[in-house]
Write a structure and sequence with these properties.
CATH class of the largest domain: Mainly Alpha
Structural class: mainly alpha
Strand content: under 5%
Helix content: over 70%
Length: 210
């Protein structure tokens, strides 16, 4: 895969193209937050982006393509944030704590995007759902490999409990933030960041951290 170009390395025309794509995706997120996918129209997105419908179609072939690009952008931003925080330390315990803290911070900082991803899916075709599911599975599998590496390092160094395979430990740890968030919303918990300490405690127990 070719490495992505830094924006400053691109021509002015290419930078303008990327800028317009971001404008469309920002506008689409707002539209999809206000109405489900099936009800949203290309015209609504173009109007919100302050672009003509023709210009929008020069950037994206369909509403489905816009939606898919929007979900991909959110997913990329999430994993970039998580991996950057994990990279900030070499201590496996701190890496797990960074992961959990970054998860909840990302939800708070991108709450509209998170709600869109959870709720704005009515009317998606089965084909698009399958494509998005496959993409999400691949991204999640890649991150689980990263988390498995953290767990393996912790086990090998004697910091984490022995006797539990690093793959299983990573899988269990990865489920904690999502489970806490889902439970909190079921109970109408308004302060997402307050969930982080409890999630960190649960992660420490799974890893066997004293």
């Amino acid at each position: 895969m070719t490495a992505p170009h830094h924006p400053k390395q691109l021509s002015r025309k290419a930078r303008e193209h990327m800028f317009r794509i971001e404008i469309v995706l920002d506008a689409a997120q707002e539209v999809f937050m206000e109405q489900p996918f099936a009800a949203a129209r290309i015209e609504d997105i173009a109007q919100r982006a302050e672009l003509s419908v023709g210009t929008l179609y020069n950037l994206f072939e369909s509403k489905q393509e816009i939606y898919k690009a929007l979900v991909s952008r959110q997913q990329d931003r999430y994993f970039e944030r998580i991996n950057a925080d994990i990279d900030s330390t070499d201590d496996p315990v701190e890496q797990l704590h960074c992961y959990v803290s970054a998860f909840f911070a990302h939800v708070v900082e991108n709450f509209a995007a998170w709600r869109f991803h959870v709720y704005a899916t009515a009317g998606l075709s089965s084909t698009l759902r399958n494509e998005l599911f496959q993409e999400a599975q691949e991204a999640q599998a890649s991150f689980l490999r990263r988390l498995t590496g953290v767990c393996r390092t912790g086990i090998d160094s004697g910091v984490f409990r022995a006797g539990l395979a690093p793959e299983l430990m990573a899988l269990a740890i990865n489920s904690v933030p999502d489970a806490c968030l889902s439970l909190a919303f079921q109970q109408n918990h308004p302060k997402v960041l307050e969930l982080a300490p409890g999630a960190i405690t649960a992660v420490d127990r799974i890893a066997g951290v004293a």
